[in-house]
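--- STAGE predict ---
source: upstream dedup step, 1 unique chain passed
mode: sequence only
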Amino acid sequence: MDRELAARYSDVILKTGIDVQPGQPVLIRTEVAHRAMAEALSRRAYELGSSYVHVIYSDRRLERARLESSSAGHLGYVPSFTRHLYGIFVEENWASISLTGSENPDELEGQDPSRQGAVRKAAAAAARDWLAAVSSNAIRWNVCLDPTPLWAAKVMGSQRDWERRIWKLLTPILRLDREDPARAWLDHDAELKRKAGILNSARFDHFHFVGPGTDLRVGMSGDRVFSGGRCRARDGRLFFPNIPTEEIFSTPDCRRTEGVVRCTRPVEVNGTNVEDAWFRFESGRVAAHGASRNAAALDQFLSTDEGAVMIGEIALVGCDSPIYRSGRTFHSILFDENASSHIALGNGYTECVEGSAGLGEDALRALGCNVSLVHTDFMIGSEAVDVDGVDASGGRVPVMRKGMFVI
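--- STAGE serialize ---
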């Protein structure tokens, strides 16, 4: 990435993404492969007045070493300072950037799903308060991406001239080709909110997805709202949780999911690529499931906790999304979830449940808001999928036809 493009991207992430303020500390979480981009973001954050930038690096090779060599009894260990550190990030209103893009997307292929699940469940439990702050938008946070050679090769088919080719693909998706990228993102935000507003006014009882291998009803409740684009944090400032973002989303009533659904894109589950996943729901819970590749990883994910078998999110994405139109599978949940409509198994977003502020887990469950240590998106939309909104009397309103919004 050339210097000018890096500067434009850094400004989009810091100004439009997390809206960093003078005196505010910033957390960056990323793999070691992204050191250059982390440095660029840190430098720009300081120029914008950030009081301190803390970078937490991870390395999938070290994760693999632990998975292959640690005794099973130690896989659930998490140092006590982890919970304390993430508590500080919430208490002091840090803005958070998750800079994604795996150095090697296949690093954890073939690892024992039960061992992977033990590590990730323990890590999520240690960061429970942090995850709650993120899901409720108590802090400003953003997930973005920095490409790597192996990831680009997985997307483009080879590493040949990878940097030029991948940025040619990503630049319009990130709106970095616009004269004013920040303005372009704000205009996009307005359109997402227009669509969300229509659904919020309709107050549908449930949504009905129909397509090849899919006949799924996702129940809502009267206190649910759709959101999209920018969100408002506890301090009143607006931020983009994801860049890019193409979705409008809500938290369904997790007790009211019925039917069968077939996934239209692969998804990474606990570091393992799962393909052709499908689910059958009864009374809100996954009653049967399968996958053509790495089904064991899906089995392990669903056994994480009681909430892992219930839906925490419904999201609608049109097939006019620039990510979908690219014709690529990105092997990145950030990009692939913004290519097509999806559901998420696991934790719900309390921001989409009116009157949920400050409620404990039992009270959230009583409202049908799912509670879980995990949250993984499964893409279910395509040009072959229609979506109707159905009101309490059974009246149907077309929402999407052939994967495109008709509202």
